[in-house]
Records
---
Amino acid sequence: MPGLRAPSDYKEEPSRHPALVINSKEPFNAEPRRADLVSSYVTPVEFFYKRNHGPIPIVQDLHKYSVLFTGLKGSSKELFMKDIWKLPKYTVAATLQCAGNRRTAMSKTRKVKGVGWDVAAIGNAVWGGAKLADVLELVGIPKCSHVTSNGGKHVEFVSIDKCKEENGGPYKASIPLSQATNPEADVLLAYEMNGETLNRDHGYPLRVIVPGVIGARSVKWLDSINIIAEECQGFFMQRDYKMFPPSVDWDNIDWSTRRPQMDFPVQCAICSLDDKSVAKPGKITIKGYAVSGGGRGIERVDVSIDGGKTWVEAIKSQKAGNPYIPDGENSDKWSWVLFEAEGDIHGSTEIVAKAVDTAANVQPENVEVIWNLRGILNTSWHRVQVRMGHSNL
Ligand code: MTE
């Protein structure tokens, strides 16, 4: 009996919070309601979005569960949970964001292919586990390596779930060896989420967390790690999660012309309001999140209550006493900031938010200019239409 088993149907799915908005049932893809998302800085596990491509694997015997390492200088090696637990434990607060976050809004411009998401395919958690750099050192690969003695330049993570896109094979992805072996990149093999053992939906018993990078590279239910010369050739690296220009559609696409998307760009969204919001004339509170990828923090969030004619700077908040999050300017290195602004509205209007990261990157004003056929990375200014009437806020 293997330690971890991958069901071929959806009869053994875990239970989930009834307040989640389900975007696809099988495989299970769901996000919290906007207001639930920003009710706390650290997203509770039950409200953390769930993004799957197949049925959720099941641990049958944790003691028998192991990760196989191949592509090493000598023979392959196998590590069990007890080996991983022995390594120093790190906790890293990091925002995970699906590249498809805000896809539904992009598809309103022109049809895109993929599961629809509102603004909550994102969450901020405190991940606990071993640093991948330490794990790789344990199997013989020194810290801060760019290439191994037998030419390995990428680290491939392979799961055991059965995905339609892989013809029933497992989900897989890779990151460069230089990132995997760099302790500063904080890549984790995580076994805890918000201080609790990881649950099945989020990758129990062991998953990868690649901070600052689109969620697609943070492989869940890890089965093997391969040191390879070229990046992973799996579907989700080569024929998905790539950013194309608006001129490319299904009749002229050439997947090989683009690199797999890694870091995510600067993003923000308003969560206290949606297009069904009705307000009375007077004060309105605008709350949401802002985040950037690649270890860049958030410099500023601008909010407009008149469709982008005038702007005020929102107040940012972070951590709220969470002991896992370091003090000082780096606390938003991998984590989002929550923001809040107030305005006085007198009639129906468009409320807009846009963020600026520490490299002064800004969000595009309109979704049309970043439309892409797979509907990834909709980071356009976030706009919400608010009507006047009997307030439902
Ligand atoms: N890992 C496996 N094995 N299978 C998957 O379907 N989905 C990926 C990634 N890792 C996936 C996976 C994608 S696209 C995202 S956005 C994140 O997991 C979502 O992680 P979460 O469900 O814990 O929020």
---
Amino acid sequence: MKTVYTCFCTDVIHEGHINILTEARKYGKVVVGILSDSAMIRFNRFPTIDFDKRISIVRDLDIADEIVIQDDIMYDKIIEKIRPDYVIHGDNWKTGPMKAIRDNAEKLLSSYGGEVIDVPYTYNENVKRIDLRIKEKLAMPEYRRKRLKQLIRMCPIVKTIEVHSGLTGLIAEKTIVENDGGLDQFDAMWISSLCDSTAKGKPDIELVDMTSRFRTIDDVMEVTTKPIIFDGDTGGLIEHFVYTVRTLERMGVSAIIIEDKTGLKKNSLFGNEVVQTQDSIEHFCEKIRAGKKIQLTDDFMIIARIESLILEQGMGDALNRAFAYVQAGADGIMIHSRRKDPAEILEFCDKFREKDKETPIVVVPTSFNEITEAELAEHGVNVVIYANHLTRSAFPAMEQTARDILRYHRAKEADDRLMPIKDIITLIDEL
Ligand code: SPV
Ligand code: MG
């Protein structure tokens, strides 16, 4: 009896899956792998039901002879374990990022005479509707809000990219790459005060008011499902901050990061080149406590951002503040630096972790950009934020186009570099 293997990473079984299983039956004993949560989030979506439930929906079908767990996106370990004669999959994995998975399976199978079977992928109105419902569920506030905490538990490091509009939200949502024999995508989105202000042509001095910042969140939320970390600047007056927390929590934002500065806030990357005042520990703790007291769910996180290294107040001050803020109820600590060398960030993380193994640490490696995610994770960092990179990549490209049109008195020279019109008009999915 031959063995046929297929891997499922779905929350809902539909006719496409039944079709694969029915086909598989024709070839022999059917083994179904259920992809683990941590592998699923690297190339697919976040699961809307838990792992045990995903196993039981396949078991209830009563078609599989055996159910196994597949821990990795790539098939190396599972093929070594069960040595199937065939791996069967919908033919949608012949193109796009999933092609890397197919290539991997085919290569492994061919080493001992096994084969890949591609069955026509089922995509009809019904499947489309199911797909859309899963996406919509993931975008609902109660599902989206708690996802950052879930990701912090599941991922070695939560990868977060700056967004400031529906379009940049779509880039964060949909970009998947094949790299180092795996697939990868961003886990979360950062609504940066710098980039939200810059997109409106305004300085990053808490000038763009909260109503307008909420509007940006709404634009992003309309077209995405991933969790949002909101840059709340100083959080403003305590009396105002509690309203901000309430609104963000209701919208389904996962976390606000507030920085321990007071007065006219300027962007941290200016450091001491401009006048910036650090808040007192007592007052900032009061702000954290007020925010924690007002929130209604356990899902929402208030993350305290420490500016001591930016303002050259020393490592001792940074650590004192970190422990005080955690004591006041902060759900995470963001430590910032504008040095190119990550040494002070790593020293902070190591010293903080000596005493606190749990509280999530967030870093923003804009200046110390040579350090890798794996190195940060080794020092206990849980969330990495690429805080301004989509804005900084778009601006020079747009400026170059404007210059070229002025220089050549026509658009041809610029156009050759641009996204084709056909691609732009089909970029956005329609319902
Ligand atoms: C932002 O992105 O607005 C931040 C991070 O606050 S930084 O610009 O590095 O201060
Ligand atoms: Mg900011």
